[in-house]
Amino acid sequence: LQCFNGTSRVRSFSFVPDFAFAHSPLDRLSAIRNNEDKLKKLRESKAVSCVRISGDQLLFDGDTPDFSPPKPHENIILLGRDPAQKNWFATATQATDSLKSIRQIMIDGALPKEVLSIIAQARSLVHWHETHGFCARCGTASVMSDAGYRRHCPACHADHFPRTDPVVIMAVTRHDKVLLGRQASWPHGMFSVLAGFLEPGETIEQAVRREVKEESGIEIGRVEYFASQPWPFPASLMIGVIAEALNDHIEIDATEIEQARWVGADELRLMLDNKHPDGLTASRRDAIAWHLSVAALQRLSVET
Amino acid sequence: LQCFNGTSRVRSFSFVPDFAFAHSPLDRLSAIRNNEDKLKKLRESKAVSCVRISGDQLLFDGDTPDFSPPKPHENIILLGRDPAQKNWFATATQATDSLKSIRQIMIDGALPKEVLSIIAQARSLVHWHETHGFCARCGTASVMSDAGYRRHCPACHADHFPRTDPVVIMAVTRHDKVLLGRQASWPHGMFSVLAGFLEPGETIEQAVRREVKEESGIEIGRVEYFASQPWPFPASLMIGVIAEALNDHIEIDATEIEQARWVGADELRLMLDNKHPDGLTASRRDAIAWHLSVAALQRLSVET
Q1: For an interface test with A, which of B115, B199, B211 has the most A Cβ atoms less than 10 Å from its Cβ?
Q2: Prediction ipTM score
């Protein structure tokens, strides 16, 4: 992971970080989304796959995902075209026994990272349609259009667009330590970096400072962008940063997190490698949180 | 504007860029949003201001904004507390003759930047309530709660949260030039950097590459984060980056932009200073676009 170039802290953005959902190979073909003829042609083309989603689960056919071409009755969303010229669509499917949790698929790691990223796009879009069947402006049932990237209200003529929720997630550093917290609902012993939703009227940097202050009482100075990750549970954009604390004293907000502590480089390394003597862990490699911790660790190693 | 440290491209994030809406002084007091007693106390405290919004306009009383304390009948949203311990709220107001466009207020520059930032928060939240009165899941009228940061559906019990739409905005550079485009609807002669909404399942970097490719045909390599700006028309988060082009040949998508061209440092400087012989301009200083152009210009100056 070549994030920081020694002491100069130059961040290279040509690398693609090895976390989940960030490896989509698709050309989204947005120019043809409202061209019914071209969409029909795509749907009937030779190489077509359809991702079938129910809630946060994916439809399987035996041991592999059911990516069979869309049936005539299926109301499909255009995902895009992959480099092998295969056209990808998504649709909602009914709850059956043949579903598998997308989180579990991510953890198992059996699917190529490109396919997992396509599934993330499918999940976020299908969820948006499933939870936005009515016009929020007037309450009338709305209609999917633009191949799944718009819903139109036939009564008040409002247009609605898919929603993506920006989340700030931050490795907070102070001298030779990183701030980690845990929520009561997490698996025993798991810690991670802090995170929270960005609010209307905030910059990324303001959201970082507010969230860290609210959850831990720590004041933040310098904020540095690291990388971003789509997180399809249901439709977040994780904006990862490294943030420098201005004070040490932790005062947690117990409604948000159960515990927060400063962790040194040696202990963090044990947690990241799943070798901590007390069984403490630091999130999963699929999450940007793990990579933020590693980047913070590299920085600590450079500076100390 | 100390964005880049000479040739090493180290980005300092302690500076607050001097664009509009990014200077909120408020503590958002999110811990008390669902505490009715504390909210009542705040509302009745001595130092209270209420921002009154109608669409993208602000209510005035004569020559100054009507920030008078909330009337008993007004349904208010908590904005936060400023450093002088004044509590700020927002509410929707009816269309009257005493309204002034928030864009025009921004352009006039008569209000302190901190107050303009508070108005941005108010505008985004009021707009969300005005356009989300019904549950998108079931169509029933929903009810404002959490001092304005949630709407609850009494029928299906869904909770809805304010929406912020991430937008990528990028200064694309190639050798000694910056890519600028213009939309047909813009004032005559105005050019700006490219921008577009991030879609579900994308990273920031992927959205930058897709948008630039779609609008101009240019391929992007390295992407570097610059800064972010809340943009309350109605509720965007502008994520500003500098992006390096891998090719020169422009092919515009005429449905998105009318024209795109490579502009050299000397010409860009004339545009930024409003001194271009043909009257070409490069967006307003209030927008992050202007500051992205300046940052790109500084980089060109360093490299050439």
Answers
A1: B199
A2: 0.94
